[in-house]
Amino acid sequence: MLNDVVALYTSDPALFAGSVFLLSLLIGSFLNVVIYRLPMILEREWRVQAAEAVSPGADSTQVATPAAPIALPERFTLSTPRSACPKCRAPITALQNIPVISWLVLRGRCASCKAKISARYPLVELATGLLSAWVAWHFGFGAPAACALLVTWALIALTGIDIDHQLLPDNITLPLMWAGLVAAVAIGPTAGATLPVSPTDAVIGAAAAYISLWLVFHVFKLFTGKEGMGYGDFKLFAALGAWLGWKVLPMVIVLSAATGAVLGIVMIALQGRDRRAPMPFGPYLAAAGWLAMMYGDSLLNGYLRISGLKH
After folding, report:
1. Mean pLDDT, the chain, integer
2. Residue 4 CB burial class (10 angstroms; 0-12, 13-18, ≥19)
3. Threshold 0.85, pTM exceeds
């Protein structure tokens, strides 16, 4: 039975991509939960740790920190309690939680109180489905596709969290990096695929990525007295290095910096954004890493031809 499924997906890329699209809509719904809940879970943990540091055995409420945006129940995880409307707290039923479709049927409003539901939820679900289907079509059925899907889902979650909170949680970046190193050992390079890479390339990639941004951070701070990025950016770059190897790192950093600069200028021009206001770098790093994962060789060859380094 399993062999028949493998043979079917291997021989029919469209069927494989379509199946991945449907599955990834559900994954996108889960990523919405991760983007929304994980920062609050981490904040609660930090409050408890701060309370313990100030007074061992103290309660987290004894710490003088800004109040949380909403009161969290005692048990608050990625799966508990059930999803509910942020305004009226009415539980969201299974029929109201069908990716994309439920939001359209409800016309973007809560079924109970009619409060608006952000369009970002179906957009994240749809983006996850489309990008995942793209990955499946590009790599075809096999281990590289599975690895690329894992990376894609992690990058979507990190992008959403960084946009909202300017935070790249260790809970995602570090497992992503270690998964890349393990995949390099357990699977290794596959002909025609950008990931996984060899164990040597993965280790050098992770180390070089982290150290390079760490040096940039400290040199920038030395000359300006400001912190240009966070340590989460180092870890995300290290995770990309573990998956893609050291050879693509210059291209990833150039693409991410260029994208960030262009969008930053556009936001300043159109929205009057304060140029001194901090801007998350993680989304640009994630986008550049995803493009390098998909089309690294083509992008690199195109750059070399444009620059005249390759004829």
Report:
1. 88
2. exposed
3. yes
